[in-house]
Amino acid sequence: MHLVWKLLRQHVSIGQLVGFFFANLLGMLIVLLSIQFYQDVKPAFSQEDSFIKNDYLIVSKSISMVGGLTGQSTSFSEAEIADIEAQPFSKGVGCFTATQYHVYASVGVSGGQGMSTDMFFESVPADFIDLKSDAWRFSEEEGIVPIILPRSYLAIYNFGFAPSQSLPKITEDVAGMVKMRIVMRGNGQEAVVSGRVVGFTNRINTILAPEEFIRWSNARFAPNEDASPTRLIVRVANPADEHIMEYFSEQGYEIADDKLDAGKTMFFLRIVSAIVMAIGLLISLLSFYILMLSIYLLVQKNTQKLQNLLLIGYSPMSVCLPYQLLTLGMNALVLLIAILLLSLVRSYYLDMLWSVFPEMEGGGLLPSVLIGLSLFLVVGIINVLAIRSKVMKIWKNKE
Description:
The structure is a single chain. This protein has about 400 residues and is α+β, with helices and mostly antiparallel strands. The chain contains twelve helices and eleven strands. A hairpin with a 2-residue loop joins strand 8 (about 180-185) and strand 9 (about 190-200). The longest helix has about 45 residues, at about 255-300. The protein is elongated.
């Protein structure tokens, strides 16, 4: 094999190898960076764990002065809900059910000042809630109501209400220890239950309680009130679909702008990530092609000498090995440097993301590393087989 290495060194073009190295490094870095950036940024728009998730829109009927004076209903009928479910963009519809009686709540932290206020509860089907908890259930015997609050409410309390009232700031964990006393009045009855915050949501901007609690309490305290839903939560696959706005505008429905904008941002983030990934793959493929072309030319230049080596007893495997080691070594070096650069770039942009989204948790490096290793293995196997095929042709024609 020493003779083969000497032949290889005589015709190696340093410029070609350097060009391949940097082109391949650029392509690999773009591919890994696009995947890693998507994984890290995704929690800023959604708390879901899936790589491709559905988005949710909050829909209500438009309220106008004319409608208010004429008593036009703002509730959704079963036919209207069925029509929304039948639309091509709809992947599911859930109804908001609100309490129809008077609710008064007081809260306090042990050893601290408390607060009290009038409030209300709403519920949606559990499938539409972005928080999974075993505590999300209500039992009349236990008398404890689990509550999910919008995460924005906690921010309003910590940075608006608490400083003005000399109250302590609280974290999400501390909020779970806050005691809540809930007084329900209606239909000539009154009852007191305990409330406990079990989590926070970014998806739904209301105070959520389990559906079974809402049904039980409405039946007891407001049996004659109309509990028809006035808001819907609609699951869609593509919030940027132009037919969504067209349909809801024609029907006179309104969509919560923040939900639509966040969904569009998430959708376009996927599109941009896919485009950047495709560009990186294209650059990588071109660089791999350049490497294969360089190796083929190198083997072609040495055809006569390689035939001589085969004639004096060198096996095709020993003749192939230096070329195969060269390609594998270059690809391995590219992968290692790409992962190192990815870590450096990631640490830089994560600092900026954390300054905007302090509670955001970035994804790990493992998915990007696995994809990089997969690319290395696939390309390495193709290179090894291609070089072996070329040398075998020389070996068969050596006579």
